Amino acid sequence: MSIRFTARARKGLVALTVAAGLIVGAAGCGDSGDAKKPESSASGSRDGGSKPSAQEGQSGAPLAELRGPDGLLLQIVSAQRDSGGFVTVNGTLKNDGAKSAVIPAQMSGDETEIIKHGQSLGGATLVDSKGKKRYYVLRDTDGRPLTTIGLTTIDSGQTLPVFMQFPSPPSDTTDVSLQLPTFSSATIKISG
Question: Distance between CA 89 and CA 81 in Å, rounded?
Answer without folding.
Answer: 9
